Amino acid sequence: MFIKFLWIIAISTIAVYGHPIAEAIPASTVQYWFSQRIDHFANNNGTWQQQYLVNATFYKAGGPIYVSTPGELPVSSRYVDNVHVTSLAQKTNGLLVTIEHRFFGSSNPMPDLSGPSLQSLTIENVLEDFASFVRTAKLSPAKVFPVPVSPNASVVFFGGSYSGNIAAWMRAKYPKLVAGAWASSAISYSRLEYYQLDQGFGRHLRALGCAEEFSQAIDAVDEILISGNKARIATLQQELGVPSLTPQDTAGLLSGLGITFSLSPVSTTEDLVEKHVCSFFNSTNQEPIAAYAAVIKNAIKQTRMTQESLIKMGDTSYGIDDYSLGQVNRVWYYMGCKWFGNWQVAPPPVTRLPRYRSRLVNLSYFEPNCQAKFGKGVATPVDVAAYNRKWFTIINGVSNIYFTSGSLDIWHESTVLSAAGLLLKRLNNSSAFVINGATHVQDLNIDQPSDLASVRISRAIGDALVSKWI
Questions:
Q1: What is the reported pLDDT for 357?
Q2: pTM of the model as a whole
Q3: Which of 21, 359, 401, 458 is the most exposed, fewest CB within 10 Å of its CB?
Q4: Starting at the edge strand that comes first in sequence, how are the strands of the sheet with 180-184 ordered?
Q5: Which InterPro entries match (predicted)?
Q6: In Å, how far are 29, 218, 348, 358, 367 from 344, measured between CA atoms?
């Protein structure tokens, strides 16, 4: 899950390549590159090239600039062509730009992903990357855009999940650059052990009538995995259709497969959790562990995972040993170790909460890799309290942020819209909306006829707010 920055003196040193003003509007798949400093806050003038894409189809003079980042994913034209804000840009004569996050995709400040190279991966640097771009976009738009854009155009950030954090942080950190932010399912509040994720999954299962049976299946699987009986474990793995792994890696693999569809949007016509999880428990009289086996086999089938990919999925350290560029797992793992934790674990026994993943998936499943793979500069456990004091507190009382979260989002408890109540002390002219029946980042998806009414309402509120900000 997160972000980084630089100041006005950087404007004079920015170099942008290959952006002649064209009469025809270039396709949104055209790649552009923006020069950034490796470390905005160190005495180091080294630079690197950050990739971005632009959709100027709807732009007219005076229109706003809508900025996003895919976060931990490579940039693609989907983020400017096929999101809800695309239709908003059409209504407001806006331009859309999506900017790659450092160390993801093709935007790499360093030649490898070793521990020393990743030291420039800080939230401050990530945010300053985006701020540097926005400064240039507002003061010298011809340097970054393929069409004429009005100077000092209003800028609105939008994003979902970790990218929703970035949107909110950009508004909080750079209010003079960013007029407003739409933060959908932003994972704003971190926890070292994020067992609340599974409780969100459980709420969805309860609504569909199979939570108790699913939890019973987990208990039955655990009884075998913890038994130490190699023959029973091998039989279980065969029944589930998963490779021969250690009990802990098997538990980790099953946890991922068991909630494979939990982030899928719910529509008026289909709920994938009902279709691919609860249907196996609700339509048969078989024992919970047999129904669970059907869920796991179906997840493998639907995602077309091979035995090799299942082995990789079960190995929590997969990709962490590879220092070469493009290893998303390594970069994301580093962020968890260094920044925010949020390890997706089973609830500790003291909580007495129902479990929807194995008790073997705990801190000892994740944390040992931190120092072993990244060096002594990464302390364990990560200081989540310090992270929250800095990066959760920063959004408190900031105006012009629209926070949204689906009631069935498994990350709901880390959004500012926790089921226990609003986590922020003050909204101060910002807004928050729980999207009833929705899952993760559903309101920022491209508009569809099958969208829930609550999703449409959320978008209408967001559109009205953006119109005020610009």
A1: 97
A2: 0.93
A3: 21
A4: 16-17, 32-37, 47-55, 95-99, 65-68, 155-160, 180-184, 401-406, 431-435
A5: AB_hydrolase_fold, Peptidase_S28, Ser_carbopepase_S28_SKS
A6: 35, 16, 12, 11, 12
